[in-house]
Amino acid sequence: MTTSDNGTAVAPEQRPAKAPAAASTPVWKAWLQQGLAFGTLIVLVLFFWAASPRFLTWSNISGILLATAVVGILALGTTFVITTAGIDLSIGTGMTLCSVMTGIFAVNMGLPMIVAVILGILSGGVMGLINGLNVAILGLPPFIATLAMMMIAQGLALVISGVSPIYLHEVPGFQAIALGTLIPGLPNAVLIMFIVAGVAWFMLSKTVLGRITVAIGSNEEAARLSGIDTRRWKLIIYVVGGLFTGVAGVVMAARLGSAQPQLGVGYELQAIAAVIIGGTSLMGGRGSIVGTLIGALIMSVLINGLRILSIQTEWQNVVLGVVIALAVFFDTLRNKRAA
Question: Cα 175 vs. chain centroid, distance in angstroms?
């Protein structure tokens, strides 16, 4: 027994709990992981450049960066979820549904572009909220909860759009969201990705949300016993991931000039692979925004290089599958060594 300031006896279990110190990776190990990922990116660039001189032309580099934007934004959002030892398989089809909803708001309902964009992004937040409720409140495994949302989003995108693209060419300024060039030679979609990455880095590194995200992934039970409302924070984290999905959906629609309801499947695998390649652990407790960006670039360079070399789509899928398997294998290896 202890006494409080006024002399009242307080049982040990009634003492205010302190937040647990999140298990953090040594700085040099984090930099080493990012250095290895960056080194892999350089090796891939040099290899494809040697195989095809037009790989390093500015038009191709610009295309790679533009392709990276959507996957990169998706990966940035799911970095938060994976850092908690969760997973979100719905981000690919969820992105498509957000694109469709943006098209509905802008074209079918005739709302001002900025309003349609905001509502499209919030559509992603609603999906994240539902995922968070299923995982944090109902206790469903993240894999099952987000797999269900993946299928629901895919079906809703087709139903709401009438299985037809929603063209956004006539919405003034909409395509400039992705294809405009506030910085000469750099598509706005890439600029948006870097801005979103800066916001994500700040959130994960400098805010309470980021510290609790890492704490939950390191040891959720310890975080809960220390007084953290883990269910509420997990709910918030899934909503944050959903908002990133909404941004990716708007950027995709602006890039294509239309909302294509049949797209989306497969993007979640590229995004998750980018996160793991960048050093975020599938087991939770470790996340890297810079590493995620590097991982997204690796995926885009790999896909672009294989296409330039005229590798058949079937073999491209084989290579991507091998890359994902290797990324998970090395992540497992890192966790065993850290244990």
Answer: 22
